[in-house]
Amino acid sequence: MNKLLFLFFFTLSSVNCFAFNMQHLNAATQDNNKNIYFSSHDGVYRFDGSHYLNLSSISILPKRWTSDVIFQSPDYLYIAYKDKEVWQFNLNTLEAVKLSNISASKLAVNNTHLFMLAREQLSLLDLETLDVTNPLGKKDKMFDVTASANHGYIMANDGVYVINNTSVRLIDDTHVSDGELVATPYGVIYFLNDHLISYSHLNDVKIVNYDITSARHLRFSPPYFLYYVDRGSINQAEITQLAVLQKSINSHPQAYKDLFVDDEQNLWSLDVNSFEVVSSKVRLDRLSTASIYNVIATVNSQTWIGSDNGLYTYSDGHYFALNNLNQQISKLGFSVTALQQEGDTLFVTTNLGAYAINLTTQLVTQFFKGYVINLAIINKQIYLSTNDDGVKIFDLDLTQIDSSYINKFLPHKTVWATKNLGGKLFIANEKGLISFNERGDALIELEKYGPVADIQLLGNTLYAATYGSGLFRKVNDQWKSIVSPLYINELHSLSQELYLSTNHGIHKFSMDDAYTNLLEGTGDHSFTPNGVLSISDKIVAVSNQGVISVERQKQDIVPNSRISYIKTNTKTYLNPETLSVNNSGWLDIALTNYNYTFGDHINYQYRLNMSEWHDIPTPLIQLNKLNPDSYTLEYRNKANGGVWSKPQSFNFFVTGPWYSSNSAWWFYALILVTLFLCVAGFVFFWLQSFHRVFKSHQKQLQREGLSIAAINLANGIDLCCGDAVMACKGLDKLKKAHEILSPIANSHASLGQNDLATAIDMLHIKCLSRDGIESEFNVTLGNEVLTKQLQCDIYTVLYHAVENIFKHANATKITVHLNKVGNKLILQVKDNGKGLSMFARSINFGLGNYVINSIAKQYKQPIKRRSSNNGTQVVAQFPVILQPKNQDNGLATSKRQPN
Predict the structure, then answer these.
(1) What is the number of other CB atoms lying within 10 angstroms of the CB of residue 118?
(2) CA 589, 594, 599, 604 torsion: positive or negative?
(3) Distances (CA, A) of 256 to 450, 764, 885
(4) Could you tell me which of 188, 330, 407, 408 has the fewest CB atoms within 10 Å of its CB?
(5) Cα–Cα distance, 512 to 744 (Å, whole number)
(6) Beta carbons of 672 and 680 less than 8 angstroms apart
(7) Per residue in 714-762, pLDDT tens?
(8) Are strands 258-261 and 267-270 parallel, antiparallel or unpaired?
């Protein structure tokens, strides 16, 4: 289903037909920037190949039914409204001015005047003075008006007139019942009643072609060509002798509203509600006989056509029936399925059988009876692909060769094609694809997606076309589906390209493509096997309509994009070169490459001020709320599988208050960064000041506490020497002294007369005595005696680290490691508590941290703290400083060994 939807989508997109919500297309014109303008039921539309813009949406032009629109260089449109009024529109300033209230059905303009044609009268408007005159009196009917640089031509019921400024001259006094005009640089061409006439104002000479008896929608195409519609078929003639060059340029006859030729000589046809490019790369010579299935071949340097009604020769657009041969094959009629010449013999397969035609004697010999679908000559043998009998083989003398070995391997007796590719014989049949190698070994190549219509090699890759499931290729012995038309009749290869004949045109596939592409102009044609004659710069084939010649698409590079228009919330700018807009609104920037016949999908990218490239799904860049600044917009495009085009640039300016510019924003950012640094510095120094005040306060408290403690101690001792009441009061004094002295003593965790190992054991016992906390101490110091100060400092750090855990961590486990590593002592204290953030550590004024940091500074060894949700770890390092042996130290004689 996805493949079917994708096929439907790209088939539609491959046709150069542009339809949108617009009705009653009456005329088209083009400006100097390649934009095309269409008159419609609700005003004039501007089309750039990618975008539609109603001019009424960007100006005061009425949004009503228009009957005609024309362009005058350098920048004016003239628009006629069906009910009344003629307007002028300036494409640069977007100013619209009403010129007249005349109800004009047709407009023309030259260097000096605007011609406005009503039903019965012609009015001339002087473009300089805007005065309106009527050079001709009222007529029974006015048919048409046209103009060149200095002349105007009018067709009325009483003849054809030429107007130069305000002088009028009759150049043809024939009574007119039907007719049209088209101006050329040399004069005018007009169809009058039943013949075509070319008039030259240079020498006042007429050329008449009486063979052209019907011509509508005349359209001049520089330098010397004329297009016209003859009973629904678009034909081409040259203007000097009015000789017809091409007939039936369009794929099928159709009623048109008008024709139009753009500045790249593309021919457009306008219908009631659609318009399309009629391919000039396609030539069709119609086959008058009603034949749906046609084949083509070169026979003795002539082109032969095999049809549902027998054999024909084709030359320069003409077909001639080969009645002698047709009668010999069957007097009741027959359908030709294949033609192939070998020497002086032409082999013809039909629905009645296979025939050999001696091209010298014109004698016909039937050598097989039955429905033959296809024919191939392989190694001087004739292989017939039949409808009911599998493969039949004959030598060139028409003697049948046994083919039962091949047929016994076929899953079905209906064979579509037989080919020899890469030394293998391939049989494409109703139920799949069978191959035979040189030894005759049979292999089922493809059986799931039958019927298989044809096979072909492209490079070293095998491709199979099915009738119903699309195209497949064999990759690593696996068949992979390719997005393609479902019903394929035949495959042809050229270089690195594969061509598919289908019921809906010829499609092309390159090895690097993701899907097939419809060749322009072939979508309305149906092709059968053996319908392609040659593929070179042109593809020559025969379809259900006749012989068609198609120029191959050689355009691999997409033209550079341009800016078609820029729309803001206040104004629209057409083809701007630069721009200055206010930053309060938005910008829609429409891109186009102005190539109306490029059918491949195009990708677009843009970037601003050398930023990264941004992909956009459609050629429309939408920007919003840009800061005041100068901008450089770059944009580029590519077709599928191609390379990016050279970036194009566009400079524009966004205005607004200075305080909203990009420079202002950078200034704001600098101010914010400066403020942040100032605040951070202020907070840092503020916290440091708190720390200094806290330190000073702690020292003052300690000095005052020592004095108070000394007094309490003295009083307590004196009181304890008295009676029981005095002793109680003395003990109370001693208790208060202890409360004061304890934190002061513990601020340095004094060892007293204990060594480090004994003090650690006592601290461990203290940890074990606390409920809800599991403790583990691992201490290894060795036998060497450390200095008293080092032991005291180590114990102080350990003591305060443990105290911090008790007070702040909410831990359930404490782990302590004190080990000698080389010439260092490493202390690790770890808990499994709630952790402590960097901010909390920064504002923490606890005494323990001060003591620990102070000791770390003395030894020039920073304290490492790691904290997370899983707990906190404190790591401190100390150098090994030993007690001199000649000094008396109580710790040196300690018999207690460290844990």
Answers:
(1) 16
(2) negative
(3) 42, 106, 121
(4) 408
(5) 86
(6) no
(7) 777 777 777 777 778 777 777 777 666 655 555 445 666 678 888 888 8
(8) antiparallel
